[in-house]
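Chapter summary example.
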Amino acid sequence: MISSFLTWLCLLLLSPLTYAFDIQSKQNVALYWGQNSAGSQQSLGEYCQSTDADIYLLSFLYQFPTIGLNFASACTTSFGDGTLHCSEIAQDIKTCQSLGKKVFLSLGGASGAYGFSDDNSAKQFAQTLWDTFGEGSGTAERPFDSAIIDGFDLDIENNQPTGYAALVTELRTLFAKGTKKYYISAAPQCVYPDASVGDVLANADVDFAFIQFYNNYCNVDKSFNWDTWLNFAQSVSPNKDIKLYLGLPGSATAASSGYISDLSLLKETIAKISTTANFGGVAMWDASQAFANKIDGQSYVSHIKNILSSGSSDLTGTSASSSSSTFTSSASSSTSSIAVPATTSSSEAKTSTLEPSFPTTTVATNTEARTTTLAPQDTLQTSVTTSASDSSTTSTTSTVKITQTLTSANIKQVSTSSNETPVVTT
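The structure predicted for these 426 residues follows.
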């Protein structure tokens, strides 16, 4: 009897602890995974062994309605029609879920051929997503085999908002037929309202907003506008319980600006914004950066998790409805992301080239112009020229020029071959 008990106790102590995901927790960490931003990406299953993250976002489904997936070197086999067949990732999804993690599939990215012509095409694509990655049965080719993801993330960056509210609404109808809880998230720039996902956030039931407070003027260390997003959650969002995440780079090389190396500043910021009922945690680009970045021998993501957890008595339950600090806000409707959309509309003219040299990105609109020079370690060159009309501007439009130097991980870059499409995002 004693021997059996000791054996059981040893197995229990040696087994990884399983934590159940709690959407109401204010200690959650969400990580994008798949694009190998740091160049040292581990498998999804390996990262999920850590208790430092709760949500993983597979990036990206960069092409739709015709499905195109890219996970850098993590998946290289395909079905006969060229769609990726990722059996290893499929097993890792199940492993992560068995450890209490949630795994979402992220749609979009800054470079890709995606978007909808109208709401009807978006509704039809909702069925495709359900059949291909959810509990539907309308397709024989499932990239993740029998693994079923826990939700979809909208990392839309091409300033074309058509159809996404209809997509989410239809997905909600399909989710109701499932056997488990499904989630919807969106990743807006901190500029409010976001030009790409602002419409879906205002008109559909979205569970999470992973707000990118980096590569923007509204970074934490600049004109931090958390109050603007809190007002959105309380006054605009159809889901008044939407969870707002502080979106950060996982290291200094994960973005051109917005990385917070000062853990004291990070702790102070989280202490302030976590007093709000809609605070949900921290989201980062990306897993490879956040785990590889070490501060005093400890990974950055671990520091983040510890900061969130250290104030457990303060970061749980419902608290004040507004932040104790005043943050500046913005009403600008133009996104400040440096994106490379592959689709065009009648109001936009965009061209791009990819060459193996030092990348230079130029984005110009009627409200802003940017010239960006990337660091030598980057290998993609992208040139973009944009001419767009904005009905929301007044008769007098000023031009603002911003010049900034990016580091390698400001763009989410994948290794490419002749039959691969690079995925680039900020």
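To summarize the output: The CA atoms of residues 359 and 380 lie 5 Å apart.
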